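hiii, so i know i said id send this last week but things got crazy w the move. better late than never?? heres the sequnce for the chain we talked about at the cafe, plus the structure i predicted for it. fair warning i was half asleep when i ran it
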Amino acid sequence: MNDQYSAADLAQHEQALSLKFNPAVRRRMMMTALPMGFCMAVRPLNAATIKTDDQGLTAGEVMVPTPDGQMPAYRAMPAGSKNAATVLVIEEIFGVHEHIEDICRRLAKLGYYAIAPELFARYGDAGKYTDIQKLLAEVIMKVDDDKTRPDMDAAVAFAKTEGANTDKLGVTGFCYGGRQSWLYAAHNPNVKAACPWYGGLLPGRFPSRVNPIDVADKMRGRVLAFYGAKDAGIPVADVEKMRAALKAAGDTKSEIIVYPEADHGFHADYRPTYHESSSKDAWSKLLAWFRANGVA
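okay and structure toks below
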């Protein structure tokens, strides 16, 4: 797909990959390890919570080098694998907790190298919060997109050092990570396929930041996104605006699927919002989208 991008597009991305931040605005990593188990704010857990074992996998916490220090991440891959297609997994607001790690293991069981960087590492440990509103105010609202993008680049670069095939690069993410999946596809022209789940599309909590609708012209047929019709925070009207923006950009391949009975967080099997049939259908479509777009 790189032939769809101009030399300026690629040069801009190469500049981002250099990870040269202004030292005056750097903020050192606060977290030195991932949270254990599930985020405190999501307990008690739903009875449907899925637990994927790590048999046959190389899986666990790793430290990804960035100019601001070592960033914790979780990665999983088939044991002994080389040249596995790479999937960048982007967290919810609850951090890289057990559910996100499980997503990585599910992908690794299918032959992928999956890595989930802890993008909140500069701001606090999301896993320790018991109150969601406090988590939003003290951590999530402070996250700087201009640092998040190179942090994700660093995670991809780390995957390459472990033998993963980053030319076959996919991205998926949930809630906060859904929004970031759209934005990372726009940022990185080497992404072959992106599958955001119920990520914000229009200005909302982050009115001053770039939103997916602002970069619809950079999707270029690479995105399959999943939303729930019962999601009050991302109404179907927002989805229709995003569809219109994609169409206006001449993107006839990217697609947004809305599940009529699903709410926000419908893939999160550990939460009451889990909607099994919608989740399973979307997951199968994600895998097919990856394969069809060269992430396999």
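btw The radius of gyration is 18 Å. thought thatd interest u
miss u guys!!
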